[in-house]
Amino acid sequence: MRKRMIWECISVVLLLNIFFIPFASAQQPIRWKAQSLFGAVELPYKAFSDFCDRVKVATNGRLEIKPYPAGAIVPTYEKLDALKNNIIQGMHTCASNFMAKDPALGIITDLNYGYQEPWEFEAWWLYRGGLDLLNELYKPFGVTAVGITFWGMESFPSKYPIRGVKDYQGRKFRAPQTMTADILAKVGGAVVILPGGEVFSALDKGVVDGADWGTPSMNQRMGFDKVAKYTIYPEYRSLPAAEFAVNTQEWEKLPADIKQILKSAVREFSQDMLARVAIDDLRALREMKTTGVTPISWELSEVEKMRRVAQQVWEEWAKKSPNCRKVVDSNVQWLKELGRIK
Protein backbone atom coordinates (compact mmCIF):
# COMPACT_ATOMS: atom_id res chain seq x y z
CA MET A 1 0.00 0.00 0.00
CA ARG A 2 2.77 2.40 1.02
CA LYS A 3 4.75 1.51 -2.11
CA ARG A 4 1.70 2.18 -4.25
CA MET A 5 1.20 5.64 -2.70
CA ILE A 6 4.83 6.50 -3.40
CA TRP A 7 4.46 5.53 -7.04
CA GLU A 8 1.25 7.54 -7.32
CA CYS A 9 3.05 10.63 -5.95
CA ILE A 10 5.89 10.12 -8.40
CA SER A 11 3.37 9.81 -11.23
CA VAL A 12 1.72 13.10 -10.24
CA VAL A 13 5.11 14.89 -10.22
CA LEU A 14 5.96 13.46 -13.63
CA LEU A 15 2.62 14.60 -15.02
CA LEU A 16 3.20 18.12 -13.69
CA ASN A 17 6.58 18.17 -15.38
CA ILE A 18 5.09 16.92 -18.63
CA PHE A 19 2.15 19.30 -18.84
CA PHE A 20 2.74 22.41 -16.75
CA ILE A 21 6.45 23.20 -17.03
CA PRO A 22 6.47 23.15 -20.84
CA PHE A 23 3.33 25.27 -20.73
CA ALA A 24 5.03 27.87 -18.55
CA SER A 25 8.18 27.94 -20.66
CA ALA A 26 6.11 28.22 -23.82
CA GLN A 27 4.45 31.44 -22.72
CA GLN A 28 5.03 34.16 -25.28
CA PRO A 29 7.50 36.94 -24.41
CA ILE A 30 6.32 40.53 -24.17
CA ARG A 31 7.18 42.22 -27.45
CA TRP A 32 7.50 45.98 -27.86
CA LYS A 33 8.33 48.26 -30.77
CA ALA A 34 10.41 51.31 -29.89
CA GLN A 35 11.45 54.16 -32.18
CA SER A 36 14.59 56.27 -31.79
CA LEU A 37 15.13 59.95 -32.54
CA PHE A 38 18.33 59.03 -34.40
CA GLY A 39 18.84 57.66 -37.87
CA ALA A 40 20.21 54.15 -38.41
CA VAL A 41 23.72 55.39 -39.29
CA GLU A 42 24.15 57.37 -36.08
CA LEU A 43 26.12 55.96 -33.16
CA PRO A 44 23.36 56.78 -30.61
CA TYR A 45 21.01 54.55 -32.59
CA LYS A 46 23.52 51.71 -32.43
CA ALA A 47 23.77 52.26 -28.67
CA PHE A 48 19.97 52.13 -28.50
CA SER A 49 19.94 48.83 -30.39
CA ASP A 50 22.49 47.43 -27.95
CA PHE A 51 20.30 48.57 -25.06
CA CYS A 52 17.38 46.60 -26.52
CA ASP A 53 19.60 43.52 -26.83
CA ARG A 54 20.73 43.82 -23.21
CA VAL A 55 17.14 44.07 -21.99
CA LYS A 56 16.28 40.80 -23.72
CA VAL A 57 19.24 39.04 -22.11
CA ALA A 58 18.68 40.56 -18.66
CA THR A 59 15.00 39.53 -18.65
CA ASN A 60 15.85 36.03 -19.90
CA GLY A 61 13.84 36.72 -23.04
CA ARG A 62 10.68 37.80 -21.23
CA LEU A 63 10.81 41.32 -22.75
CA GLU A 64 11.87 41.88 -26.34
CA ILE A 65 12.18 45.46 -27.57
CA LYS A 66 12.59 45.82 -31.31
CA PRO A 67 14.37 49.09 -32.15
CA TYR A 68 13.48 51.27 -35.12
CA PRO A 69 15.39 54.33 -36.40
CA ALA A 70 13.88 57.79 -36.71
CA GLY A 71 10.85 57.90 -39.00
CA ALA A 72 10.69 54.14 -39.54
CA ILE A 73 7.19 53.77 -38.09
CA VAL A 74 5.92 57.32 -37.63
CA PRO A 75 7.40 60.78 -38.21
CA THR A 76 9.50 62.07 -35.30
CA TYR A 77 6.99 64.67 -34.17
CA GLU A 78 4.20 62.09 -34.10
CA LYS A 79 5.91 59.64 -31.75
CA LEU A 80 4.08 60.89 -28.66
CA ASP A 81 0.67 60.24 -30.23
CA ALA A 82 1.88 56.89 -31.54
CA LEU A 83 2.98 55.92 -28.04
CA LYS A 84 -0.28 57.12 -26.52
CA ASN A 85 -2.24 55.03 -29.06
CA ASN A 86 0.02 51.99 -28.55
CA ILE A 87 1.22 51.98 -32.16
CA ILE A 88 4.65 51.87 -30.59
CA GLN A 89 5.27 50.86 -26.99
CA GLY A 90 8.51 52.76 -26.42
CA MET A 91 10.51 55.70 -27.72
CA HIS A 92 13.96 57.16 -27.23
CA THR A 93 13.35 60.84 -27.81
CA CYS A 94 13.71 64.44 -26.68
CA ALA A 95 10.53 65.82 -25.14
CA SER A 96 11.22 69.05 -27.03
CA ASN A 97 9.90 67.30 -30.16
CA PHE A 98 6.44 67.70 -28.65
CA MET A 99 6.57 71.32 -27.47
CA ALA A 100 3.49 72.08 -29.59
CA LYS A 101 1.50 70.10 -27.02
CA ASP A 102 3.04 71.85 -24.00
CA PRO A 103 5.81 74.50 -24.16
CA ALA A 104 7.33 73.02 -21.00
CA LEU A 105 8.27 69.95 -23.05
CA GLY A 106 10.31 72.30 -25.24
CA ILE A 107 12.73 73.25 -22.47
CA ILE A 108 12.83 70.37 -20.00
CA THR A 109 15.40 68.32 -21.92
CA ASP A 110 17.77 71.17 -22.77
CA LEU A 111 17.95 74.35 -20.68
CA ASN A 112 20.30 76.28 -22.94
CA TYR A 113 23.53 77.50 -21.31
CA GLY A 114 22.47 76.01 -18.00
CA TYR A 115 24.88 73.13 -17.46
CA GLN A 116 28.54 72.56 -18.25
CA GLU A 117 28.92 68.85 -17.47
CA PRO A 118 26.54 65.93 -18.14
CA TRP A 119 26.63 64.83 -14.48
CA GLU A 120 25.21 68.21 -13.41
CA PHE A 121 22.11 67.79 -15.58
CA GLU A 122 21.81 64.08 -14.77
CA ALA A 123 21.82 64.90 -11.05
CA TRP A 124 18.88 67.27 -11.60
CA TRP A 125 16.97 64.53 -13.39
CA LEU A 126 17.63 61.79 -10.87
CA TYR A 127 17.99 63.60 -7.53
CA ARG A 128 16.32 66.99 -7.88
CA GLY A 129 12.95 65.97 -9.29
CA GLY A 130 13.51 66.29 -13.04
CA LEU A 131 12.24 62.83 -13.99
CA ASP A 132 9.19 63.23 -11.76
CA LEU A 133 8.46 66.55 -13.43
CA LEU A 134 8.71 65.03 -16.91
CA ASN A 135 6.32 62.27 -15.89
CA GLU A 136 3.92 64.90 -14.62
CA LEU A 137 4.03 66.51 -18.08
CA TYR A 138 3.61 63.16 -19.83
CA LYS A 139 0.79 61.86 -17.63
CA PRO A 140 -2.05 63.39 -19.72
CA PHE A 141 -0.74 61.48 -22.73
CA GLY A 142 -0.59 58.08 -21.03
CA VAL A 143 3.20 57.99 -21.24
CA THR A 144 5.80 57.10 -18.60
CA ALA A 145 9.44 58.18 -18.82
CA VAL A 146 11.51 55.28 -17.49
CA GLY A 147 14.85 57.07 -17.46
CA ILE A 148 17.05 59.70 -19.04
CA THR A 149 20.07 59.48 -21.34
CA PHE A 150 22.84 61.76 -22.64
CA TRP A 151 25.11 61.83 -25.66
CA GLY A 152 27.29 64.75 -24.59
CA MET A 153 28.07 68.36 -25.31
CA GLU A 154 27.18 69.59 -28.77
CA SER A 155 29.14 71.79 -31.17
CA PHE A 156 28.23 74.72 -33.40
CA PRO A 157 29.71 74.72 -36.93
CA SER A 158 30.11 78.12 -38.59
CA LYS A 159 31.63 79.72 -41.67
CA TYR A 160 33.51 82.31 -39.61
CA PRO A 161 35.06 82.30 -36.12
CA ILE A 162 32.67 82.82 -33.20
CA ARG A 163 34.84 83.51 -30.16
CA GLY A 164 32.34 85.31 -27.96
CA VAL A 165 28.88 86.81 -27.56
CA LYS A 166 29.48 89.82 -29.82
CA ASP A 167 30.39 87.60 -32.79
CA TYR A 168 26.77 86.56 -33.29
CA GLN A 169 25.67 90.09 -34.18
CA GLY A 170 24.39 90.62 -37.70
CA ARG A 171 24.80 86.98 -38.75
CA LYS A 172 22.27 84.34 -39.79
CA PHE A 173 21.93 80.99 -38.05
CA ARG A 174 19.94 77.83 -38.46
CA ALA A 175 18.16 76.88 -35.23
CA PRO A 176 15.03 74.98 -34.20
CA GLN A 177 12.04 76.95 -32.95
CA THR A 178 13.07 76.58 -29.33
CA MET A 179 14.92 78.54 -26.66
CA THR A 180 18.03 78.50 -28.89
CA ALA A 181 16.35 80.73 -31.45
CA ASP A 182 15.34 83.24 -28.77
CA ILE A 183 18.86 83.38 -27.29
CA LEU A 184 20.50 83.88 -30.69
CA ALA A 185 18.05 86.69 -31.44
CA LYS A 186 18.85 88.28 -28.06
CA VAL A 187 22.54 88.59 -29.00
CA GLY A 188 21.82 90.08 -32.42
CA GLY A 189 21.65 87.01 -34.63
CA ALA A 190 19.01 86.41 -37.30
CA VAL A 191 17.43 82.99 -36.98
CA VAL A 192 16.45 80.86 -39.97
CA ILE A 193 14.20 77.88 -39.22
CA LEU A 194 15.23 74.95 -41.41
CA PRO A 195 14.71 71.18 -41.33
CA GLY A 196 17.86 69.12 -40.84
CA GLY A 197 17.99 67.97 -44.45
CA GLU A 198 18.46 71.55 -45.69
CA VAL A 199 21.24 72.64 -43.32
CA PHE A 200 24.20 71.52 -45.48
CA SER A 201 22.88 73.33 -48.53
CA ALA A 202 22.11 76.45 -46.48
CA LEU A 203 25.67 76.54 -45.11
CA ASP A 204 27.16 75.82 -48.52
CA LYS A 205 25.21 78.60 -50.27
CA GLY A 206 25.63 81.15 -47.48
CA VAL A 207 21.95 81.21 -46.56
CA VAL A 208 23.16 80.80 -42.97
CA ASP A 209 26.53 81.48 -41.34
CA GLY A 210 26.26 78.77 -38.69
CA ALA A 211 23.99 76.00 -37.51
CA ASP A 212 22.75 74.29 -34.38
CA TRP A 213 22.84 70.54 -34.91
CA GLY A 214 24.75 67.91 -32.94
CA THR A 215 28.09 66.75 -31.59
CA PRO A 216 31.28 66.99 -33.72
CA SER A 217 30.95 63.43 -35.04
CA MET A 218 27.26 63.93 -35.89
CA ASN A 219 28.06 67.18 -37.69
CA GLN A 220 30.89 65.49 -39.58
CA ARG A 221 28.53 62.79 -40.83
CA MET A 222 26.24 65.57 -42.10
CA GLY A 223 29.22 66.93 -44.06
CA PHE A 224 29.19 70.32 -42.33
CA ASP A 225 33.00 70.33 -42.02
CA LYS A 226 33.24 70.62 -45.80
CA VAL A 227 31.43 73.97 -45.88
CA ALA A 228 31.93 75.38 -42.36
CA LYS A 229 35.56 75.63 -41.29
CA TYR A 230 35.01 76.68 -37.68
CA THR A 231 33.23 74.94 -34.84
CA ILE A 232 32.57 75.94 -31.24
CA TYR A 233 33.38 72.96 -29.03
CA PRO A 234 32.48 72.34 -26.35
CA GLU A 235 29.48 74.55 -26.96
CA TYR A 236 27.91 75.12 -23.57
CA ARG A 237 24.62 76.17 -25.16
CA SER A 238 23.33 72.66 -25.61
CA LEU A 239 23.72 69.62 -23.38
CA PRO A 240 20.58 67.73 -24.41
CA ALA A 241 18.93 64.86 -22.60
CA ALA A 242 16.71 62.21 -24.18
CA GLU A 243 14.29 60.02 -22.31
CA PHE A 244 13.32 56.40 -22.85
CA ALA A 245 9.56 56.56 -22.45
CA VAL A 246 6.88 53.88 -22.73
CA ASN A 247 3.12 53.50 -22.96
CA THR A 248 1.89 53.69 -19.35
CA GLN A 249 -0.62 50.84 -19.67
CA GLU A 250 2.08 48.57 -21.10
CA TRP A 251 4.44 49.66 -18.32
CA GLU A 252 1.92 48.77 -15.65
CA LYS A 253 1.56 45.25 -17.07
CA LEU A 254 5.25 44.50 -16.43
CA PRO A 255 6.27 42.54 -13.34
CA ALA A 256 8.28 44.49 -10.77
CA ASP A 257 11.61 42.84 -11.62
CA ILE A 258 11.38 43.73 -15.33
CA LYS A 259 10.54 47.33 -14.42
CA GLN A 260 13.68 47.51 -12.32
CA ILE A 261 15.74 45.86 -15.04
CA LEU A 262 14.53 48.50 -17.51
CA LYS A 263 15.36 51.37 -15.16
CA SER A 264 18.87 50.03 -14.63
CA ALA A 265 19.32 49.27 -18.33
CA VAL A 266 18.45 52.87 -19.28
CA ARG A 267 21.18 54.20 -16.98
CA GLU A 268 23.66 51.78 -18.55
CA PHE A 269 22.46 52.84 -22.01
CA SER A 270 23.16 56.48 -21.11
CA GLN A 271 26.68 55.75 -19.87
CA ASP A 272 27.41 53.61 -22.92
CA MET A 273 26.15 56.20 -25.41
CA LEU A 274 27.92 59.10 -23.67
CA ALA A 275 31.29 57.31 -23.74
CA ARG A 276 30.98 56.00 -27.29
CA VAL A 277 29.94 59.37 -28.72
CA ALA A 278 32.75 61.14 -26.82
CA ILE A 279 35.32 58.76 -28.34
CA ASP A 280 33.81 59.27 -31.79
CA ASP A 281 33.84 63.05 -31.30
CA LEU A 282 37.59 62.94 -30.56
CA ARG A 283 38.12 61.01 -33.80
CA ALA A 284 35.98 63.47 -35.75
CA LEU A 285 37.81 66.51 -34.35
CA ARG A 286 41.20 65.00 -35.28
CA GLU A 287 40.02 64.31 -38.82
CA MET A 288 38.35 67.69 -39.25
CA LYS A 289 41.53 69.51 -38.19
CA THR A 290 43.37 67.81 -41.05
CA THR A 291 40.81 69.28 -43.50
CA GLY A 292 41.18 72.83 -42.21
CA VAL A 293 38.50 73.01 -39.52
CA THR A 294 39.40 75.14 -36.48
CA PRO A 295 37.76 74.14 -33.17
CA ILE A 296 37.09 77.11 -30.88
CA SER A 297 36.77 76.78 -27.13
CA TRP A 298 35.24 79.81 -25.43
CA GLU A 299 36.78 81.58 -22.47
CA LEU A 300 34.75 80.93 -19.33
CA SER A 301 33.98 84.67 -19.08
CA GLU A 302 32.20 84.52 -22.46
CA VAL A 303 30.22 81.43 -21.39
CA GLU A 304 29.09 83.31 -18.29
CA LYS A 305 28.06 86.34 -20.40
CA MET A 306 25.96 84.09 -22.59
CA ARG A 307 24.45 82.40 -19.55
CA ARG A 308 23.31 85.79 -18.25
CA VAL A 309 21.59 86.42 -21.59
CA ALA A 310 20.06 82.94 -21.44
CA GLN A 311 18.67 83.61 -17.97
CA GLN A 312 16.55 86.40 -19.45
CA VAL A 313 15.17 83.93 -22.00
CA TRP A 314 14.56 81.31 -19.30
CA GLU A 315 12.38 83.81 -17.49
CA GLU A 316 10.49 84.66 -20.69
CA TRP A 317 9.79 80.96 -21.22
CA ALA A 318 8.76 80.52 -17.60
CA LYS A 319 5.89 82.92 -18.25
CA LYS A 320 4.49 80.79 -21.07
CA SER A 321 2.67 78.34 -18.75
CA PRO A 322 2.55 77.08 -15.15
CA ASN A 323 4.44 73.97 -16.26
CA CYS A 324 7.19 76.10 -17.82
CA ARG A 325 7.47 77.96 -14.53
CA LYS A 326 7.96 74.65 -12.69
CA VAL A 327 10.68 73.51 -15.09
CA VAL A 328 12.61 76.77 -15.00
CA ASP A 329 12.35 77.29 -11.23
CA SER A 330 13.44 73.74 -10.49
CA ASN A 331 16.51 74.05 -12.73
CA VAL A 332 17.38 77.50 -11.41
CA GLN A 333 17.28 76.24 -7.84
CA TRP A 334 19.73 73.44 -8.68
CA LEU A 335 21.99 75.71 -10.77
CA LYS A 336 22.26 78.07 -7.80
CA GLU A 337 23.14 75.11 -5.59
CA LEU A 338 25.84 74.16 -8.11
CA GLY A 339 27.15 77.72 -8.18
CA ARG A 340 26.57 78.14 -11.92
CA ILE A 341 24.31 81.15 -11.34
CA LYS A 342 23.71 83.55 -8.46
How would you portray this structure in words?
With 342 residues, the protein is an alpha/beta fold. It is 48% helix and 14% strand. The protein has a five-stranded mixed sheet, sandwiched between helices. Helix 2 links the parallel strand 1 (30-36) and strand 2 (63-68). It is globular and about 65 Å long. The model is unreliable at 9-26 (pLDDT under 50).
Q: What is the general shape?
A: globular
In the predicted model, the low-confidence regions spanning at least 5 consecutive residues are 9-26
Going by CATH, the homologous superfamily of the largest domain would be Bacterial extracellular solute-binding protein, family 7
What about the largest sheet?
5 strands, mixed
Our measurement of the CA-to-CA distance between the termini, rounded to an integer number of angstroms, reads 87 Å
Content of β-strand: 5-15%
CATH architecture of the largest domain: 3-Layer(aba) Sandwich
Report the order of strands and helices.
HEHEHEHHEEEHEHEHEEHHEHH
Under CATH at level 1, the class of the largest domain stands as Alpha Beta
Give the beta-strand count. 11
Number of domains: 2
Q: For the residues shown, what is the average pLDDT?
A: 92
Q: Please estimate the helix content.
A: 40-55%
CATH topology of the largest domain: D-Maltodextrin-Binding Protein, domain 2
Q: What is the tally of helical segments? A: 12
Structural class: alpha/beta
